[in-house]
Every structure is written in C-alpha cells, then in structure tokens.
Protein 1
Amino acid sequence: MKEKDVYAELSSIRDLMERSSKFISLSGLSGVIAGLYALAGAGLGYLLVHNLKTETGSDGPYAGEPVIFWQLFMIALAVLVFSVVTACWFSVRKAKVKNENVWNPVSRRLLAAIVVPLFTGGLFIIIMMMKGDYTTVAAACLIFYGLALVAGSHYTYNDVKWLGFCEIFLGLLALVLPGYGLILWAIGFGLLHIIYGTILHFKYER
Amino acid sequence: MKVSLEQFDKAFENRIRLQIMSVLAVNNSYDFNSLKDLLQVTDGNLASHLKALEKEDYITITKSFIGRKPNTQYAATQKGKDAFKKHLLALENLINQQK
C-alpha cells in the first residue's frame, strides 16, 4: 500500500462519515434570501403599524386591533412560507449538483429533530393569540425557532447551533422588552439569517 | 514503498467494505437503498460486501417492511466498531512511520 493510497483512504473515510451523518445540502444563499424576506416583511409590518398610529393618534398596543393584527399575521405567514420554499428549493438544487439524494436518513433525522420544537412553538403561539395575548408572539417565534435550530444542529453544520443560541437570546430579550418585539424579530429572522447565510456560503461553498 | 499488511484487517481490504463500516461507525443504522445512493455501487456489489461483513459478525441486519416495501437496516456490532477502530489506528501508524 502506497502512502498516498493511505491518505486517499483516510480522506474518503472522513468524507463518508461526514456525508452520512450530516445534512450538508443546506445552502447559505437561501439563508440570505430568507433574511431579506424577513426584513421586507418587518418593514411592511412597521409601515402598517406606523400608519395606524398616525391615523388614530393612539400609541397603545397596536396588535389589539383585529385588522392590523391579521395583516401582520398574514405577512409573517408569507415570510415563513417563502423562506421554507426557498430553502427547500436551494437544498434540492445543491444536492442535485453533487449528485446526491436530498431525502436520505440524515435529512429525515434532521426533520424529526426540529419538528417537535417547531410544532410546540406554533401551537403555543396560536393558543396565546386565541387568549388575546399578543405580547409574547414575537418572543415565542424566536425562542422556539432557536430551540429547533439547536436540536437540529446535531445533524448539520455546527454553525447552526450558534444561530440557534442567538435566536433564543433575542427571544428572551423580546420578553424583557415587549415594545421591541418587531425590531428584535427583524434582527433575529432578518439580519441574523443574512449574516449566517453569508458565513455558510464563504465557509463551505467556495 | 511496500509495507506489511499483517496489522490490517482482512475484512477491510476491500474499499467498499471499509466505506460501509465508516458509515455505520457514525450512524446507529442505515438502510440498504441509502447506502447504495451514498456509495454509488450496484445492488449486487453492495449486497455481497454486506454479506461478507455480516459473516465476520461486524454488522447486524434487521429486515422489516414499510407498507409493502421491504426495508433492510444495517448496524455495526461492537466487534465491528472495535475492528474498524483498530484498522484506522493501523492506517495512522503507517503514516506516522513514514514521516
């Protein structure tokens, strides 16, 4: 056995260990785009709230207004759907380029890991909204999303774990500072995704 | 440069067998089709190497059905993991010796 054969053998082992246990088809670019959607959504939400304030002259809890509340809700939902579709589309494309199958044991495990915190969070938010408590919605979005990222990071890039911790921290901060929900939501889902996507792109895709 | 192959595990002489063990070393279990996709080998080729590893008691096979489709899961035994670790150490020693 020649020396370079040994090296080739070892590097193929390492490569297989990584590819078989980590989902590496996540695309950094889709993170950046998701961040842009979120920023656009937050901007639109801010405009709506701002208009309402100038119309009514009140500075009260805007989310209590049913119309504005549903508009904000639909914006958030649209951001979520667009982000998920973009992320899936880019992952499928990246996997195809590398001649791999996206639907493999690792991606199934990744989904299984994130589905519990995400669904719990979704139900938590819906229950809080039905009770008419809108103050925790932004915080709960960030906290449960962060928990899902930390849980899923075991099956993908380790950087995802740090993104998760940052989201959890912002969520807790949003609980402490209720009036800043929208801006913290914009930082967490917009700015952080853009930063994280850029890091991912330059670290692994070049 | 030739070196003695005595310290290497005969079962891992074949590259595909070594690759199968690398996958099973870091995953609790893996199914046949996913292994096939990952290693990009033919059914028959993969099956014969899996059989060889099973004969050595390095892996266990669990057959079940998902709906009507057969689903075969493979997992490394403790013996297989130990042998794999030993083989990796031997590879590393080889590199260190040549330095």
Note: The two ends of chain A are 33 Å apart (CA to CA).
Protein 2
Amino acid sequence: MNRLSIIGLVIVIIFVLVAIFAPWIAHYDVGATNLAMRYMPPSAAHWFGTDSTGRDIFSRVIFGARISLEVGVIVVLVSAFVGTIIGAVAGFYSGWVDSVLSGYIFNIFLAFPGLLLAIALVAFLGAGLNKLIFALCIIGWVGYARLIRAQVLKVREYDFVQAARALGAGDLRILFVHILPNAIQPLIVQASLGMAGAVLSEASLSFLGLGVPPPAPSWGVMIEEARDLSTLQAAPHALIFPGLAIALTVLAFNFIGDGLREYLDPRQRGR
Amino acid sequence: MTPKLFGLVRRIGLLILVVWTVVSLVTILIEMVPGDPAVAVLGEQATPEQLAQFRAKHGLDRPPFFFGFPIDKNGQRQFKWYGLNNRYDDYWIAILHGDLGKSFRTDQPVFGLIVERYPATIELAIAAMLVAVAIAIPLGVIAGKNRGTLIDNILSVLALIGISLPGFVIGPMLVYIFAVKLGWLAPSGRFEWSDIILPAITLGAALSAILTRMVRSSVIEELGEGYVRTARAKGLSERAVVYKHVLKNGLIPVVTVLGLQLGILLAGAIITEKIFGWPGLGLLLVEDGIGKRDYRIVQGCVLAISTTYIIANTLTDMLYRWLDPRIRVS
C-alpha cells in the first residue's frame, strides 16, 4: 500500500470517529443562535469561530460529518448492491439480456451528466435527505454495473468456471459462488471513489438548496450560508472550515481509491 | 451491409433511442411532483377557479399518458385508455415544433429563455476548458518527463487535491481573495470581459486536475515508443521530441476526455453560475426554475443540457475514431 492511501485511511478513520462521537465532541447546540456572538473569529471558546447567526462552526462541522458519511455509506452500499446484481446478470447471460441492459439501459443513465439527473430528480420530488439519497443511488448504480459486467465477462471464461459447470452446478451457484467472488475486487476501488463522489454530491445538492434543508448542519448548507459578501467580509472562517472538511474527506477517499487501484493493478504502478 | 456501415447505423439507432428516452423521462418528471403541481406553483391559498384556469392554460388538466389507472365511482382503480389526447403526446408535438411550453410564472416561452441564456453557458464552458488545457498540458508534460521524481509526486498530489476541491468551495474563496480582499475583480455578474476570469477558473480547476493526470500518463506511454528513439537518434532536441512528436500522439486520449468531461462541465456550470450570478442555463435552472418551482423551466433546462451533452459525446466519439484509426477497426 502506498503512503497516500495510508494518509487517506487515517483521515477517514478520524472522520468516522468524529461522526460517531459527535455529541461528545461538540460542545454547543448546532442550532443555537446567538446574535450577540455573530461573526466571532476562532478562539478558545469557539475553535472555528461563529457564523452570521452566532452558531458555533466547530460543532456544526462535527455534526456535518454525520450527514456526509451517512449519505455516503447508504448511497455506496445501495448503488454497489444494485449495480452488482444488474451488472452480473448482464455479463453472465450476455445475449439479448446484455444488449438491453448494457446496450440500452446503461447508456440512458450515462446520457445524463450525473449531477444534473440528481438535481432534476430532487427538483421534482422536493428537497430532503431521503430523496437526496434516492437520487444519488439512481445515478450511482450504473458505474458499478458496468464494472461488474466487464469483470464477469472475463471471469466466466476461466477454466474453474467451466469445471464447475461440468460438475453440474446451476447458473445461480456458478454466478454467486464461483464468478462473483473472483470478480468484485475492483468494486472496492469504485466504492472508495464512490464515497468521494457521494460526499461531494450531497454537499453540492445541499449547496443548491436541494439536499438537507437548513438549519441542518450539512457542509454544503454551511458554505451556501457563508458565501454572501457581508459574511465573507466579516467571517471568512465560516467558509473555510466547512470547505476544508469537504475537501479533506473527498481527498481522503480519493487517496484510498487511487492507492487501492495501484495495489490491485500492478501495471498501473508509477504511471 | 459492410461492418463499418452497420456500426454507424447501429450507433445512430441507439442515439435516437437514447434521445427519445431522455426526452420521455424529462416529460414525465413533472408527474413526480408530490401532490398537485398547480397547488405547488400557485400556493395553498389559490381559489379553485385560479387552479382550474392554470391547469387549463398549461395543459395540466389533460391525462398524463396514453393510459392510466384513475379511481372510479366505486373507489376502485380501473385501467383507462385515453388515446392521443394526453400530455406526453402534447409535449412531443410541441418539442418537434421547437416549443418547450410556457413559464408557469411569467408565461414567457421557455424555448426563448433557453436560447437567450445558452450562449453565456457555452462561453463559460469554453473558457473553463481553455483554463484547464492551459494548466494541464505544461504540468502533465513536466510530470510525465520526470516520472517518479519529487516534482512528479508533488504534481500528482496537487492534481488529486484539485479533483477533490469542489467548485462551491473554490469559487467563494476566489471571491473572498480577488473581490472582497484585493478588490481586483467583481464578485458576480457578466458585464465586463474580466468577469469571466473567476467563474472560468472555478469551473476549470477540477478539469485541469483530471487532464493533468491524462497528459502525464499519455506522455509516459508515448515516450516509450520507437519513434521517440528515432527522433532522439536523429539529434532532435528533447523539447522538439516532446512538443512536436510526443504531444501530437499523446493528445488523442486527452481530446476524448475533454469531450466526455463536457457533461461534468455543464453540470458544474449550474453551481458555478449560481456562485457568480452568471446568467446562463444553470442560473435559469436554479433560480427561475427550481427556486420558483417553475417546472416548465426545469424541464426545458434539463432537456437542453442533456441534449448538448449527448451531442458532444457523439461528436467526441466520432472525432476519436477519426484521429485514431486503430479504433475504427475494432
């Protein structure tokens, strides 16, 4: 494993711990406003300062980790599960099933820029955490499906699969016991990059007002609230800290994904 | 039919099928609005007459599709065939006449609004691509030529950081530095030529990082080819080898990535335009469409952006095949 993926892993572990223990780490109520204390710079009492309504930015960033990681984990698990099943079916049965799935359905989903489809879905369904997760799963599964399809197409030609078939194993057994366990390694890379993508998309949609509605401390919402000119002038830290949190989390998952890819595919090393 | 012609026909067929599905999805998006779109637009206090008038004006009083399962007098869901008198059909006929319906708020034709805003978005996307290419080619070449060295490692990490920093973080930070602190540039709007600088950098940053990685691996691959040895053997300077020979071949995959990234640029433009008040399609979608629940505008913008994306992808694919004859065969 390379050094960068270790750094990534450490950052992710810190964020997970922070998300789990958020109520013990944050020492202010995330919604408690205090107009007398607005725009306070970072200090011993408010480590990251306060925002335009006097809320403690440190506490909000800490609780924001919960939203980001929750969305990321659910989206990646659901998308990977659905994508794996559909991709495996397409790759295993090939023929017309594959033509319909990979030739048509995959192309439909790839025909939209992912974020646009998510924006469109949430714009019509209405904002909210569950709808946001649903929209991100809709745009997420196809990446996994394409990957698994290609893997299954390769693995099913191996001798051990032919051997299992000769021994009389049924389709389901061959697919789930023999092919999939040998095909899902690259899924880990995709899942790690998918976490980065999901965290980013959640923040983007919340920034656009389509995700978690304020006053929930989503990092995207915090940035949206911090970017008007008077707040920028008085309290740039209200923008910088949630921005850093997003960048660090996304960077960490990208580091892990990149490192894993190199590890799993030695030909890629040093390229 | 020759295999080449068959391939082309197949591709065009698929393209038509994809466009048809995308348009269909966009037309039925409005059915996903929870409750009644008319109430969502006019508000709870609207009178039944106002609601009925609104529905009639925008064709919302007609059945959504060719068939449906309305609830009959006995409270049972029954299959009912509506025939051609439906909204899905209406929308298609209108689209084929270049009509995307009227704004729910202002009654302006949505097609006109899109035509008005479209140039600003394309301008921004092209500027962002130029920024990205201007950064990526030199950095990618430097990293590729010095593969495995400290410079290469630093550039690789920088590229990953660039990919990880979203536009809505970079953009407001640029506004803070260049508009609030230094006062060199305007924080928003599209009035002077210099107004495009900050949005273009914001939108181009992530793309430049992706492209840098592409150019780097491309340069590394090409440097190992036989023709490079020949060029060096005949005494060409390293500079000439890289910029005249290696880049020429190495840029082929970069062209593809550039085309495929246009979709990400267009989606990213939605956010960038919101940050900088840049009056393009994204701002139309977010402020006039989503912000005011003007679903007709949302439909139109989604359609315009995804169609642009599909056309750009098809053109990229054709360009790629033309540039690299090896792909034409397979």
Note: DSSP finds 13 helices and two strands in chain B.
